[in-house]
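Internal tracking record. Fields below are filled automatically when a chain is submitted to the structure queue. Please do not edit lines marked as system-generated. If the sequence contains nonstandard residues, flag them in the REMARKS field before resubmitting.
Queue: standard
Priority: normal
Entity type: single polypeptide chain
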Amino acid sequence: MESARHASAASQKVFVRFLGAFQIEANGSVIRETTAQRPWNLLQYLIVNRGAPVPKQMLIDTLWPEGESKQPEYALKNLAYRLRSFFSASPLACGSSIIQYNGSSYQLAPNISWSTDYELFEKLALQGMAENTSKSAQLALLRRAVRLYQGDFLANHTHENWVMPLATYYRTLYLRCVETLATFLEKSGLYEEVCRLTGKALALDKYNEPLHTAYLRGLVNQNKHKEAQEHYEWVMSTFEKELGTPPSVEFRSLYYQLSVAAFAAQPNLSAVAAWLQNKTQPAEKAVFCKFDTFLNYCRYAGRTATNNQPSIALLSLSGKKRHTPTKQELEQAPLLLTENLFACLSHNSAFCRLSPSQFLLLLPQTTPEKGKMILSCVQNSFVSGGQFPLLVLELEIQPLKQIMQP
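SYSTEM-GENERATED OUTPUT FOLLOWS
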């Protein structure tokens, strides 16, 4: 039986999956790694570097980079022994000789033909994005490539130093593939596939703006206006809250397309009324809006101003003396400041968040002198709470007309 199991050792082909959950496929069987990660980490490193024997010192430095093993050579031998014991009863033709040692280095059994998903993925991806590849071939190649990518490179070992750069490289290549493929699919009118493709990729990188743009266009082109509106609002909120900056002009311009599409489905004033009556904030309060909307408010106010010129103000949170604001302060202080602005500003004012620590204010029909009084109210309200004694609120105000002059 043993001789039958190891038959055709020289011709056995083994396929190894690194993208996502690690597993080895041989003779129709699947071998998955056990909970003891370090022996598998040794095997994975040897597979990735299977072109030549790997010196034992290199393995020691890789597996115990902080020198946490008191007897690293013995520990390395023990890992190799555990792997040999595990694979002695496996479908692999090499069995217990899967790892070989020649006195100074380790290598995999030479009678196995190893192939991996990450190498195939890279080959398909690069061919699919090559300029000299035909469009039809590009579509097929990129589809195969993204199907292979079932998760990050060695997703259960991303904490390993040697895994990190490889995981970053293949994830970046995957996202490039998705962007390129989404463009082809959109041109072909395959909008549902665009959304499936980009939605899966966004689970890995929620800040990837090109993918959000492609996903949003896919929804709009399927007339899924409600889902598109919800996704647009989520992206705007997430970027401004977590990154402190809105998405690009290209992405924000999709808001107009969404509005047109929504009204086109019901081309009368009732559609407009439904949007106007959607009260996201009380009408008697100042308007808290996105940066692009704020700019439009400023342009309109600058064109329509009469006797009392509007003013624009910049509010900046910073640390006192040498204090560097903490992450918690940068998350919580702007929330308090937002409440202060609602309490102190009139209903015809507008403000937006410019960065994680800055706000812009539009004060219509307000002289700089009166504007300074309003800002003092905001500053006093923020300071009187005593929640952030190590932060200071800096104020700057100028006439809007002066700001808008070239």
